[in-house]
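>> received
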Amino acid sequence: MIGTINSVTAALSSSLLAAFAIAEQMRQEREDRVSAQTALRNTYEAIPIGLFTLTSQGQFARANPALREMLGLHSSPRDHWSDHFELGAWDKLQKLVLSGAGQEMEIRSISRRGKDQKWFMVKATMAKDKIEGSLQDVTDKVKATGRLLFLAEHDPLTGILNRRGIEKVFEESIGELAEGNAMALAYLDLDRFKLINDLFGHVAGDEVLKQVCDRIRGMLTEGQSIGRVGGDEFVIVLKGTPIQSAAWICRGIVDRIGTHPYLIGERAFQVKGSIGLVEIDKSMRVKDAISVADRACREAKNGNHGNPVVYDRHSPVFREREEELHLIERFGTNAAPEGLFQVMQPIMSLRAPYDSLNFEVLLRMREADGSITPAWKIISAAESNGRIAVIDKWVLINTLEWVSTHYEHLKNTRFVCLNLSGGSLNDEKFIKDAFSILAQYGRTVERLCIEITESVALHDLDNTRRFIDGVRSHGAKIALDDFGGGIHILLLPQGTPGGCPEDRR
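>> returned
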């Protein structure tokens, strides 16, 4: 009997202990749950990201303090999503939720008087019958990105388009150019503007540029855009403008620029401009249009007295441009193009014409149809394609070969003169190759006279001196073309032995 009571007592004690343990565990779990809920609530309240819960109809059911501050909500918001965001924002949010988790979008706030419009990044998902989401203010990021995009296509000084921007406008405009519609492009260059910078500084020059752009923009209408493509050079795209009307606009721009002086502080500056204008065809490329308009501008600058030089779409300059591009393509390799040849132009002394017979090497190129391309076109194409050193190297080698072959018949020849371009003289590889070539021809080099212009020589005096010394060390002569006192005096202290006797201007 007593043993039975002890067994029952032990069982009850064990059950009570187990119950106490379970109760303690439940209490601890409840405290942990309450603690977790408190921590979550504190996080919800303190997090700087806006958190919200919307009903399926779009009313705010809950919002943390960060979101209420962003949107100016009351503590118990009942506003609709559309009350705070741009038109169509509720439809956008619904589409975002239906697209699945992990999606996000940018939306704008409603414009309110006295408040700047803001941009927000939204993430949201569907939770049962409610929308749970977050909102971040990305206004500064959007503005910074917008500023970068603006600077990518606009000139930071004047605020007008830059080259990239105006070329984009051209491409968009020509893409919309239907048959029978008109379009023109103008190239404007300010005359002698560099003097303002040189004499009065870039601050004055910058202010003049701003005022010039303001005057031009005041004359342009919808569909007409201006871009700055150089220090004082501009391109104007005239969409939907017949060539006759475009010419009238350009004359007005020239007058507007040059009629009244530009007041900067107490100084007044007079600026004039020259304009070249081309009619645009749907098949025309932007680089070709700008190149031809630039050519027309240079022609206007050379004496058209304020009137724009106008090329319509049938002008022969476009055919010449195609020929130039075809020629440029032929300089696409490191080898000289086929058809190059040289002619020798005699150089004789007027005082003693029979004492010597000297020559100047002239470059030509024979085309497949037998026509001859002059030197200036060859040089222009080679310079455009970065291959002028290839041409100069070809000229140097072939001239030395000709002199070497006819050396015994050139006893009355004191020199054979050839020209080298400025691009080659500033090409270290070409100079190294040229010295190597001169070293191979021995006494033949003594008959060679290499001609450089003063402007090229003065570009880099140290490099010029090094080149001249190197040429003379191999026995060749140097001629200075189109030179004045500056370079001549520069060379005299070092002596000029071995130079060509004719000083030709």
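>> The CA atoms of residues 276 and 470 lie 44 Å apart.
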